Amino acid sequence: MADVTNTMAAITAENKSFYEKALLQRLTPELVYARFGQKKSAPRNEGSTVNFRRFNSVAAKTSPLTEGVTPDGSALTVTAVNAAVKQYGDFVRISDMLDLTGIDPVITEMAQVLGESAGLAVDTVVRDVVLGGTSVQYANGRASRKAVVAGDNLTSAEIRKAVRTLRKNHAKPIDGGFYIGIVDPDTAYDLMSDTLWQDVSKYNGGQQIMKGEIGKLCGVRFVETGNGKTVTNGADSGAIDLHQTMIVGADAYGVVDIAGTSKPQIIIKSTESGGTADPLNQRSTVGWKALFAAVRLQELAMVRIEHAVTAG
Length: 312
Description:
With 312 residues, this protein is an alpha+beta fold. 22% of the residues lie in helices and 29% in strands. A hairpin with an 8-residue loop joins strand 10 and strand 11. The longest helix is centred in the middle third of the chain and has 25 residues, at 106-130.
């Protein structure tokens, strides 16, 4: 007997809306890295690879024209960046006894738990791609990751240096003339001690505040995430964890999907859907899946800063 998938399309519109809302309540707060990528969708049945195309800059011509002589002109060049989408997902099994006797509404609770897991999964995939870039700055002028030591924390001087790099690269700001910085709570703690730090509470009356925004510094608006990443400095002695902070400009990276499938889909299979694999109708499942990819588009529009943090 064929396996019948009891998806959202098979239940009432009211239940579909309710379960999707439960998924998104936990999903939305986690999508920090994905939020600032260039979004691109492709239609169905057009393959699994999405192509980004970028016209490269044309050098400024500073020599005067010769009267009556047509100049040679400049050639346009295009850089293509391809991203192959991949499918991600997970599910949980629920026994009929748990569904019948559990104190909590099990399916709803599982939708919320999986929403949180889906959000973290999507955001982590994007994060790891973005943090894998080649434009890196080591705190306190260190020459390598191994050279960074305790006390080489993120400061306004480091932010100014990253902004200088982006401006020299002609990287475009993202919002209101500002670049975006993505920091974890330990890094935010250090930045808030900087004398140049502007807390969001000081300027939220005259500027639209982004979700998760905590303040601004040296031309960068900072958003905090609990999904930061650390790496070891690999030192032979005095090994410490380094925190990775991203400062990004517009179109630094992209997040792509096929026909909107990067938004995780919740899938519910009832106890009646298992066929001969579940002859006594003892199991139901709740799961999610998403089809998407993340890709770095312009290394010159992002800087990864690796640094220490104040011990907790």
